[in-house]
Q: What sequence folds into this?
């Protein structure tokens, strides 16, 4: 018994390979490499190329030479086209760390492109952290510079926004680079770290949003309190011109009436004195 593997890339002629009982993986790799348009290699989990591994007709490695997920068959198109695989290869592929539904997912040059893209994302994350500095405060660089916000005139019960570490490696736990992507297992581990980093970012974003909401509420309360106090003080010191003008006129009238009364009293006294004069 055995399995067949057919490779097509849309450019080169389809190539079919038979994996017979007793066939070695190295023999399959050699056969693929002798075919125009395709290149193959066996990559082990630590990045080393396996010399050989015998596969029987059911796809199980003889003598447990090849453990599940510890190695994978790397096949690329030499002209950079995407490769499609077909045939009864499920039993073989599952021991090579490949998914039978998409047996070959690599294309020529894709490793280099993916590594460069990943490294670029890491650099952008770290640069964003560095640029997130305002007036000497950076709350996401992991250096412990907390932000303390005073919310009353006595500086009691302040709101503290804690500094967090969101740098790519030490904070989010991402790999420093993709050079360790020597196997599907290593790539899966990086994907797990990326998902964990996304969860961390969402958690920290929620925490910052809660702190911001609390600070904004206290700011609105303080602003309204200040406006109320200012209005009250203005009413205490700012006079009503019409009211004060009326009061002044009343005082002036009372003063004039008093003067007239004194004048009349003086004249009456003088008239009485004349009678006795």
A:
């Amino acid at each position: 018994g055995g399995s067949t593997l057919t490779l097509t890339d849309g450019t080169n002629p389809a190539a079919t390979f038979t994996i017979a009982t007793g066939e070695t993986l190295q023999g399959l790799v050699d056969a693929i490499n002798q075919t125009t348009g395709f290149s193959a290699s066996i990559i082990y989990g630590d990045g080393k190329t396996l010399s050989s591994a015998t596969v029987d007709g059911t796809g199980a490695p003889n003598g447990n030479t090849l453990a599940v997920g510890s190695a994978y068959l790397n096949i690329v198109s030499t002209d950079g086209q995407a490769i499609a695989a077909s045939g009864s290869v499920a039993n073989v592929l599952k021991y090579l760390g490949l998914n039978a539904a998409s047996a070959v997912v690599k294309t020529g040059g894709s490793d280099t492109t993916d590594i460069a893209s990943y490294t670029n994302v890491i650099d952008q994350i770290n640069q964003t952290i560095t640029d997130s500095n305002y007036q000497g405060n950076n709350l996401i660089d992991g250096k412990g510079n907390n932000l303390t916000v005073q919310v009353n005139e006595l500086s009691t019960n302040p709101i503290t926004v804690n500094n967090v570490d969101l740098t790519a490696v030490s904070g989010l736990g991402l790999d420093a680079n993709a050079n360790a992507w020597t196997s599907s297992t290593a790539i899966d581990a990086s994907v797990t770290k990326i998902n964990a980093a996304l969860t961390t970012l969402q958690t920290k974003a929620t925490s910052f949003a809660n702190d911001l909401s609390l600070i904004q509420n206290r700011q609105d309360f303080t602003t309204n309190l200040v406006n109320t106090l200012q209005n009250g003080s203005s009413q205490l010191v700012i006079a009503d011109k019409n009211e004060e003008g009326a009061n002044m006129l009343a005082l002036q009238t009372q003063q004039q009436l008093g003067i007239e009364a004194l004048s009349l009293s003086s004249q009456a006294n003088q008239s009485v004195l004349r009678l006795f004069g």
